[in-house]
Amino acid sequence: KGLEYNAVLCPFLWTPADTARRSRVQFHDAAGRLTMDLRGKRGAAPEAVAAHAREALAEEMRLLYVAVTRARKQCVIYTGDIQQQGVSALGHLLGESMREGGKALAEALPERIAWSAVEPESAAPVPPSEPAPERPLAARSFPGAIRVPAFLTSFTGLTAGTSREEPERDEPAPERPAPPDAEVADIFRFEKGARAGEFFHEVLETLDFQQPEQLAGLIPTKLAVHGLSGAPYAGSVAAKLAEVLEVELAPGLRLRDVPLEARLSEAEFSVRLPALSPGDLRALFTDAADPALDPEALGRLRFQPVSGFLRGFIDLFFEHAGRYYLVDWKSNWLGNRPEDYDLPGVEAAMRAHHYALQAHLYVLAADRFLAARVPGYDYETHFGGVFYLFLRGVERGNPQRGIYRACPPLALVEKLRALAAAHTP
């Protein structure tokens, strides 16, 4: 509104003011209050639908005025024998027959308005077709394979073999022999599976690590939100998460020392992957020394080649003493004994669920983020490492239990960078 043009063409002023796509019933009541009838056109009262239609027509009339007053020298309006023309702004202005109404308006103001009728052209005759010679028809066989690269994927999409973005979830608990109930700690009895994972993630996302006393109120609230029957174990869950805050992840590094302003929770990222196949992953990690990685198993993943972006969420991305770290919370149940969460059990879980691949992809995302944000960024100087915390097994007095630690060497990170910068043929 306010702009002017030498010539303005208005080809669609005959469209109905209130179309079927406008399913909402919105109008001003007798007191002038904006009102919406949530039942829609089918369920709303007739007078509400009529008031909505009147206001829709008034708005279209306003827009018609704006359209035809933009022209400096010429405005061209198209009309014709249109169905339901009376319910359009132009039909309301010109009368039931827009064709006749427009013609009458032009005859009344010949010095201002010109009227021209365009008759439809008659269709050209189509010559009869020659009968096709009779011959047996058969589809040719296609022995090839059409591969459609995924444009957007995630770690879970890759490992599930779908190549599409999938929600991340903690793995369900495997069945394995358990010691007698009397010997099982409450944290191992606590609910297992995806809902438990969502509960732990939400508590730790909300919690101020420097105020662990918040756990007493957070845990019952989040148990109720997620519909978990974990109230008898709330105290054990709170005690375990307090240990998570106090355990030493690296010399001099505890989550208890990380303020809110130095962390990002559920940090979303998208990393460009111009070309990625299972074979690329096998080749990438063949020489990796990480026992939690299984290059041959990665090469057997069944996802279609990816050409686009990897999207994900890093549970915790934080800075401490000038270095940056990643944390992923895992609520997986590895057994009912504390020793089930020692390094062999943790590494077995990391291999079985390809979590080490996830860790390296997250390191790539963090590396690209830091390179864009930290002046003079140097991977070996600024990146501290990644920690996977298997929450049920973490112990303050045994920092090796329940934790996977990794800091990929620069040579491997450079290979990951090259993968993200590669060009498809």
Quick overview of this protein structure:
The protein is an alpha/beta fold and 425 residues long.
Itemize the secondary structure elements and their pairings:
Blueprint: E1 5-10, E2 25-28, E3 34-37, H1 40-43, H2 46-68, E4 71-77, H3 89-94, H4 98-108, E5 150-153, H5 155-159, H6 186-189, H7 194-206, H8 215-225, H9 234-246, E6 263-276, H10 278-285, H11 295-299, E7 306-320, E8 323-330, H12 343-352, H13 355-373, H14 379-382, E9 383-390, E10 403-406, H15 410-421
Parallel strand pairs: 1-4, 5-7, 8-9
Antiparallel strand pairs: 2-3, 6-7, 7-8, 9-10
Helix pairs in contact: 7-8, 8-9
N- to C-terminal separation? 48 Å
Determine the mean pLDDT. Answer: 87
Helical proportion, percent range: 25-40%
Structural class: alpha/beta
- Please provide the ordered H/E string of secondary-structure elements: EEEHHEHHEHHHHHEHHEEHHHEEH
What is the global morphology? elongated
Largest sheet: 6 strands, mixed
Number of strands: 10
Question: What does this entry look like structurally?
Answer:
With 425 residues, this protein is of the alpha/beta class. The protein has 15 helices and 10 strands. It has helices at residues 40-43, 46-68, 89-94, 98-108, 155-159, 186-189, 194-206, 215-225, 234-246, 278-285, 295-299, 343-352, 355-373, 379-382, 410-421, and strands at residues 5-10, 25-28, 34-37, 71-77, 150-153, 263-276, 306-320, 323-330, 383-390, 403-406. The strands form 3 sheets. Strands 5, 6, 7, 8, 9 and 10 form a 6-stranded mixed β-sheet that branches. Strands 1-4 form a two-stranded parallel sheet. A hairpin with a 5-residue loop joins β2 and β3. α7 (194-206) packs antiparallel against α8 (215-225) and α8 (215-225) packs across α9. It is elongated. The protein starts with a strand and ends with a helix. 28% of the residues are buried. Mean pLDDT is 87; it is low at 162-166.
